[in-house]
């Protein structure tokens, strides 16, 4: 789903935004060993407490690195949101681009922390390898995200329980900026990290999870069995836009993909993984989390986190192929991306609708998992797993 571009908030004085001086390079060890920055004087948020849309807001600037002569160059701070690249760049002409998405949350004491950047760093390297781009050193990834957040701290929404006020969305983007006429990897690549304050895409923050209607896309295959669906490539998303738009025009907020080979098993939603919950057979038993096992789906940081939370609750976790018929038969009582129904083609000219849960709201077990996840992200619940980084927060004064 393409983010909606929203106008700047009237609370921002864009002409007088003065970002602090560029931070020194912090090429060092991964988060566990890297010195944290102590937040002594938290910069207050310039984002209102009203719920934010999942869209774009102009911020102070972004971080940029260029790969040339076989190595990554020095960090550059770029004010604003524009970038200049050759019209012949391999990214523009042949689609050599991959990206990540992670979030920074304001904590109860005003600190700002990123959620699981180590996982995003590893996944970006995987995607880069798939499209013949240089992998990023993990410490460079941390440094870039740290600087991008530190120099945009005033745009991090204020703290609210379970992240209800929103977060600072952090977008690392790696692309082949060098120009080539022949379809081949160039000699120049660019890595940027830009940010924007956003709300939740489907409203799953603040301990709430409004359920939406889903539609199964059956006339289009998102990823081939031995293709690149497991990498977060820009080219994986654009072909889905027209199908999403069609579904949205018919009242469906989210679209679901089945496996491309047989179209009998669940792969994932267009914008997130599919995770189901099996209701326990007896009252004294724990629920079971069901996660599709497929080489065509993206390895989601959120999914990995929810699996860890479910296991800490004593739940069973099944990683296996999930037949769509199992959903039709009511085998899954809830879905973590809160959906109240799934509509699919029963035949060429007939639709059928599967009701999930009570058909109106997210189920109680979904809410239980999401409350723990968003509570950790926003600092309302203890982070016993070390998922938020850095431990003592990001401080603009020490960046």
Automatic annotation (TrEMBL):
Entry annotated with the keyword Transferase: yes
Origin: domain of life: Eukaryota
InterPro entries: Aminotrans_IV (IPR001544), Aminotransferase-like (IPR036038), B_amino_transII (IPR005786), BCAT-like_C (IPR043132), BCAT-like_N (IPR043131), BCAT_family (IPR033939)
Keyword Transferase (UniProt): yes
Cofactor(s), names only, from the UniProt record: pyridoxal 5'-phosphate
Pfam families registered for this protein in UniProt: Aminotran_4
Annotated GO MF terms: branched-chain-amino-acid transaminase activity
N6-(pyridoxal phosphate)lysine: residues bearing it: 232
Annotated region (Disordered), positions in chain: 1-43
Entries under CDD domains matching the protein: BCAT_beta_family
An individual GO BP term: branched-chain amino acid metabolic process
Gene3D superfamilies: 3.30.470.10, D-amino Acid Aminotransferase, subunit A, domain 2
Biased composition (Pro residues): 1-10
UniProt keyword annotations, A-Z: Aminotransferase, Pyridoxal phosphate, Transferase
Family that this chain belongs to: Belongs to the class-IV pyridoxal-phosphate-dependent aminotransferase family.
Entry protein name: Branched-chain amino acid aminotransferase II
Lineage of origin: Eukaryota, Fungi, Dikarya, Basidiomycota, Pucciniomycotina
């Amino acid at each position: 789903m393409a983010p909606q571009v929203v106008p700047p908030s009237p609370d921002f004085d864009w002409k007088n935004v003065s970002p602090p001086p560029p931070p020194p390079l912090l090429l060092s060890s991964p988060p566990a060993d890297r010195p944290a920055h102590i937040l002594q004087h938290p910069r207050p948020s310039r984002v209102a407490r009203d719920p934010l849309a999942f869209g774009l807001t102009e911020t102070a600037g972004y971080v940029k690195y260029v790969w040339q002569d076989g190595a990554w160059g020095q960090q550059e701070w770029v004010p604003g949101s524009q970038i200049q690249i050759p019209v012949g760049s391999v990214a523009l002409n042949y689609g050599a681009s991959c990206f990540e998405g992670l979030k920074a949350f304001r904590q109860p004491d005003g600190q700002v922390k990123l959620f699981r950047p180590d996982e995003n760093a590893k996944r970006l390297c995987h995607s880069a390898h798939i499209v013949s781009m240089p992998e990023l050193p993990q410490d460079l990834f941390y440094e870039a995200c740290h600087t991008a957040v530190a120099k945009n701290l005033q745009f991090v929404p204020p703290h609210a329980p379970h992240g209800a006020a929103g977060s600072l969305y952090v977008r690392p983007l790696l692309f082949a900026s060098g120009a080539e006429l022949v379809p081949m990897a160039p000699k120049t690549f660019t890595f940027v990290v830009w940010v924007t304050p956003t709300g939740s895409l489907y409203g799953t923050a603040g301990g709430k999870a409004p359920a939406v209607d889903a539609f199964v896309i059956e006339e289009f295959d998102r990823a081939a069995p031995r293709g690149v669906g497991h990498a977060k490539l820009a080219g994986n998303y654009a072909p889905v836009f027209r199908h999403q738009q069609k579904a949205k025009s018919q009242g469906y907020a989210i679209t679901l993909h089945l496996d491309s080979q047989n179209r009998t098993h669940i792969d994932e939603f267009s914008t997130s993984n599919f995770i189901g919950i099996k209701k326990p057979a007896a009252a004294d038993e724990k629920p079971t989390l069901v996660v599709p096992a497929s080489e065509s789906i993206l390895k989601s940081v959120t999914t990995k986190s929810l699996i860890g939370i479910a296991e800490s609750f004593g739940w069973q976790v099944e990683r296996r192929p999930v037949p769509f018929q199992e959903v039709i038969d009511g085998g899954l009582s809830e879905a973590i991306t809160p959906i109240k129904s799934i509509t699919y083609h029963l035949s060429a000219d007939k639709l059928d609708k599967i009701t999930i849960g009570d058909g109106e709201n997210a189920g109680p077990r979904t809410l239980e998992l999401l409350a723990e996840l968003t509570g950790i992200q926003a600092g309302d619940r203890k982070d016993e797993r070390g998922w938020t980084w850095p431990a003592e927060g990001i401080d603009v004064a020490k960046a």
